[in-house]
Amino acid sequence: xxxxxxxxxxxxxxxxxxxxxxxxxxxxxxxESGEMVFYRDLEANMWVVPNSGYHMKIKAxxxxxxxxxxxxxxxxxxxxxxxxxxxxxxxxRYVDRLxxxxxxxxxxxxxxxxxxxLFAQPVTVAVQDFDFMGGSLGMAAGSAIVTxxxxxxxxxxxxxxxxxxxxxxxxEGILSLMQMPRTTVAxxxxxxxxxxxxxxxxxxxxxxxxxxYAMLGDVHLAEPGALIGFAxxxxxxxxxxxxLPKGFQRSEYLYEHGMVDMVVHRHNLRETIGSIVGILTKAxxxxxxxETAPARLATPIAASAxxxxxxxxxxxxxx
Amino acid sequence: MTSYLDFEKPVxxxxxxxxxxxxxATSDQAVSIDEEVNRLSARADEALVDxxxxxxxxxxxxxxxxxxRPHFSDYIRTLITExxxxxxxxxxxxxxxxxxxxxxxxxxxxxxxGQEKGSNTESRLKHNFGMARPEGYRKAVRIMDMADxxxxxxxxxxxxxxxxxxxxxxxxxxxxxxxxxxxxxxxxGVPNIAIIIGEGGSGGAIAIATANRVLMLENAIYxxxxxxxxxxxxxxxxxxxxDAANNMKITATDLLSLGVVDGIIPEPAxxxxxHHAEVMESTSRAISQFLTDFPGNRGRLEIREHRRDKFLxxxxxxx
Lengths: 319, 319
What we know:
The complex is a heterodimer of chains A (319) and B (319). Chain A has 319 residues and is α/β, with parallel strands linked by helices.
């Protein structure tokens, strides 16, 4: 790629297709260590910073193509919903905000649902993308989750959700809150159909999303270092007027407190979930999965596992 | 002694004058004040009717939070006999913010859930201002399990600013606790009714408000987030709470037209805090009507599916 391409193409590209933040800036900064990483190295490493292991955001399309067999998948058409039933405006009209986000991301809303195969087992997968209005849960996202779960039930496949969200979409008010029971109905129906629901928490997942479908999986996995909680850290700090402890509401902390089953490096998600899904659906054993099993046992937990964890946690009375 | 809200000033002035006249009359028996008092009372009543006819959403928010508004314990005292509160989630603690138990309504056994905000400093602290921790929601699940097993209908009185955002609450899985409570509600094979008596705040409310019939008191509010918190997120300024309240569609009439609630329990002019007896009477009628009419020939499965289908349908016919 020569300098002319670099200068001219981004402007044209912005008309033609959604903004591709990574490829425009060839270097990307690790938000934790500050290290500058070459874009192509990141892409090749599934957006995990090679040195620090920091898990950066990964686009829905990349998530699906790196997760499913041969990178192949079909997206499931999602129902259209009322766009702005409250006629909401804050500093901007909600309809304008939506248009901007759609232009920026090239997606209709925060959730993509796809079908594909995982180690030759049919699966239904949804990805909730933080880049679209903070992955917020409005009517579109709620209906997408319902559609995803119903699709899984119809196809008789497990449902795997990669979730990331700041919570409810304020601009849809109470209708956003109603997505909590709506999605829960669909989770129950999948469960009653005898099919597994696997949740993968990615950074960050908070609010009404954790307080509904995301916490109702049969198995909860989390990528390392993801922020996961009900109230956001800022709200809690304002309420209790204290600084929060280090590592609070991170994946490893949720693991220690019994809310997630495993903290799994992005590179190992395919095998880990492939194996869980195979076992829960009683699929025949696959050699390629059995061989990787020992690696999976090395859970990347740095914390002090020990007898003291069984007691009442020190901060339990600190509210 | 009623404490007045700022927009009730004309009424406060008139009632102040009446009180003044009465105190003159007690000290000087010769003065006849009856005529003047009657005239002023009539004017005060008119002013109250005028004001309450056109309350803004923000004014309703203030009425919904009025300290003298009937709270959970007032409904229990008036409507329920043999009230038998049960305590504890059998896992960690008792949470007095969320009250749960059994009793009789017009002689019929019922299970009851609800948040109690407290009515003086001591009881407010005891009940944590009606903001429940995970233990409250886990206790709710316990009571729902029993109600389901013993085939007893459930009544929820919802009155909370939201679930408590604290370190301990997060540590013990606030999000999961809320999600499970909503989930359990959607599994019930017995009829349930939820009444938003004051504030229906977000996930903390929906966890016990996922019911076959959801009613709201006329001046109650029900929202995805408190107007203050909504303003600080959307306008980055908590002082814009009025704008948020007006935009978010949080009043009973708004929610009825959005199909989120099934009916409104009227409050006389002046609000529930001036008319406890009337409001108890109409609430009693609404509950009684539900318990008589709703079950009909419905079996457990139909009752459950009615609730699930009702919530799945919310928002789908809006444009």
